[in-house]
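Here's my example:
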Amino acid sequence: MKKQLIVRGRYKSRPRKCLIIFSLILFSSILASNSILATNSHMIAQQKTYSIGCAPTPPDALGPFYIPNAPLRNNVGKGYALKGMVLSTKDCSPIPQARIELWLAGPDGDYKDDYRATVIADEAGRYRFESYFPPAYMRRPPHIHMRVSANGFKTLITQHYPEAGSSTDEFNLVLIPN
């Protein structure tokens, strides 16, 4: 009899444990989806707020390899050219002298000082940066990290994802006024 009770006890507790684990998984996925929805709705609200101007560039992860004060240069390699304009959401006007910090993984997948640069937008808000085509690594698609700052605007942290096989792209950076 005792063996049957123990077996029954295990049988009864196993569904309870499964129910608790299932509830935790369900609850955490609801929280995560609510967080994503909140972020997306915030971005949609920003776009509606600035609908008479330009939609802001969506933010992206800073990543663990950001180091401030990258050297002033517009080239860290050859083969991939990125250009664009830095604009204001208010009226799509150019933002002259915006500071664009860029960093990417080297051909070996490592982040090094050789692959970091700071580019200053010209008086018309234009910038140009050249590198090699960034590598994919650790399940991440090829990407270039960017941190854009300008007086009177919120700092933007984003990433550019080049298309496979491309050697040039245009990526406008639209900042939100303070």
